Amino acid sequence: MRGLLAFAVLLVAAAPVPKTAPLLTARDLDPALVLPPPPASGSAQAVAELAELHAQELTRTPAEEATARRDGDTKNATIFAEVLGSKFVLEQLPATTAMLALVRASEKDVVDRGKDHFRRMRPYAVDTTLKSCKHSDEIYTSYPSGHTSMAFSMGEVLARLVPESADAILTRAARYGQSRIVCEQHFGSDITAGQQLGTLIAERLMGKPDFRIAFDAARMELIQAGIARASTPLRN
Question: Which residues contact 66 (CB under 8 A, 6 or more apart)?
Fold first, then answer.
C-alpha cells in the first residue's frame, strides 16, 4: 500500500503543472458578485480606514515594520514554514508544491479580475503623506488585497491537508494579511475582502476533480514527510 501511495505522489509531482493556468473561471467565482464594493471615497468608513493607517506610523515598532516588509516580499507558501516546521521545505515536497502552484494560479486570476473591476486606489495614492513601505505604479489595485487572498487560499487548503495545525495556519494567514496594514499598502476593507475571497477560492478549488487529485497526492506526501498525521480527520 505504501508503495502505491509513493508512486501516486511521484506520478503527480512528475506531471507538468501549468503554473499560469487557473482552474477557476469567472463562472466558478466572480469577485464582482461575491464581494461588496469598497467604501466610497470620503465616506465615514473610508476616513476611518485612512486614520487607521496613519495610526500605524505612531504605533508600529521598527521590528514590526521589518517583519511586515519581509511578509510583503514573500508571496508564496513559505510563510507557513514557521507553523508547519522544519520539514516543510517546498523544494523537497514536489506534490505539495505542484498543488500550491494550482492554488496560486487560480487565486491570482480571480483576484486580478476583482482588482480590475473595483479599481480602488492604493492608500498612498489617496494620501501621499502616508509612510508606506513601498509604492507601486499600479495604484488602482487596492481592493481586494492579493497578499491576503493568497495567504487565505493557501492557508485554507493547508488547513485541510494538516488539520491538526489548522488554527495555527489560519492565524498565520491573518497575521500575514495584517502586515499589509502595518506597511500601509492596503485599507482594512481590502484585507477583509482578501480573506473572504481567499477562503472562497479554496472552497471552490476543493470542488474541482483535477484539484482533488493534486490535493490527495499532497496529503500523502505530507503524511510521509511527517508533517501531517494520517489519523487526523480531514476538515470539510
Answer: none
Residue whose C-alpha is closest to residue 186's, from 52, 91, 92, 81: 52
Amino acid at 21: A
Cis omega (within 30 of 0) for bond into 163: no
Q: Which three cell numbers stand for residue 142?
A: 487596492
Residues 175-228: pLDDT tens digits?
Answer: 999 999 999 999 999 999 999 999 999 999 999 999 999 999 999 999 999 999
Q: How many domains does the chain have?
A: 1
Q: Which pTM does this prediction carry?
A: 0.90
Q: At what angle do helices 94-118 and 209-224 cross, to 10 degrees?
A: 140
- Grid-cell match 476583482, residue found: 114
We report the CATH number of the domain holding residue 76 as: 1.20.144.10
Residue 49 lies in a domain: no
